[in-house]
Amino acid sequence: MTPRSLYLTLAGLEVHVSAWGDRDAPALVMWHGLARHGRDFDTAARHFAGRFRVLCPDTIGRGLSAWSPEPARDYTIPTYCRQALELLDQLGIERCAWVGTSMGGLVGMGLAGTEAGRHRISRLVLNDIAPRLNAAAIERIKAYVSVVPDFATMAEFEQFLRAVYVPFGALSDDEWRAMAETSARRRDNGRLSCHYDPAVMRVFADSFDDFDMWDVYDAISCPVLALRGEASDLVERAVAEDMSRRGPRAELVHVQGCGHAPYLNTPGQLAVLDRFLG
């Protein structure tokens, strides 16, 4: 099974969406992390496509979506939330389940915890993301995404991804190769680099100090599943436990063998999602 590609104009920019499953099935949006793209969910999307209409956007500035001419305005959570609502409207989707990894979880939180999107999210999965993040981990992420190296061969690029994304957990060789092939773009010099606009990371570096979304989280009323990589340095255990006690009182699951963030590709991880999504 392979996805269909949709190209939609959302908030004035072209957004690519990998679409899986029956158009008439209940909708499941899967939104990726900061420096990634929608094809990260291929394994999970194939799993869910038999009973959901699965939509995996490439956030603007990543993958096959447009790069913004005004990065400081557009590479922000409010713009991503606006585009998510326009995505649902254009596809005629009144309500959806939402699985958000890292940044994608912040987008889901921003919808489910505000008046504009609260009625659109039926169930919310927050994959290794929280209303408050560990400042030391933010600095680590800034360090590795602020420099975009390039490589002479696809083999070298794949080895780079394997090293950087060890915390994702157990991926098969086929999954690593697919990640490399869907994550690469050739620069003008012919060398391979990651498929995102470097301005995305400059905006991130300027905007995530003193991060706090507890007020938004506390306003969520739909059921929430909080997944935390057992070795995650971004979501501290104490913060994750607070998520289970306040606001929507998320169901908390610590995912073994992962840091930031579980790739949602193993039978055990998919079983947890199966149970929660119903």
Describe this structure in words.
It is a single chain. The chain is of the alpha/beta class and 278 residues long. The chain has a single domain, classed as 3-Layer(aba) Sandwich (Rossmann fold). It is built from eleven helices and ten strands. The protein has helices at 42-48, 71-74, 77-90, 103-112, 135-145, 154-164, 173-183, 198-207, 214-218, 237-243, 267-277, and strands at 4-10, 13-20, 27-31, 53-57, 96-101, 121-127, 184-186, 192-194, 224-229, 251-255. The strands form two sheets. Strands 1-2-4-3-5-6-9-10 form an eight-stranded mixed beta sheet, with helices on both faces. Helix 4 (103-112) links the parallel strand 5 and strand 6. The radius of gyration is 17 Å and the shape is globular. It starts with a strand and ends with a helix. 43% of the residues are buried. The mean pLDDT is 96.
Structure summarized in a few sentences:
With 278 residues, the protein is α/β, with parallel strands linked by helices. It has eleven helices and ten strands. 36% of the residues lie in helices and 20% in strands.
Whole-Å distance between the termini?
Answer: 22 Å
Q: In total, how many beta strands?
A: 10
CATH topology: Rossmann fold
Mean pLDDT over the full residue set: 96
Task: Describe the main β-sheet briefly.
Answer: 8 strands, mixed
How are helices and strands ordered from N to C? EEEHEHHEHEHHHEEHHEHEH
Annotation keywords:
278 residues; alpha/beta; Rossmann fold; two-stranded antiparallel ribbon; 10 strands
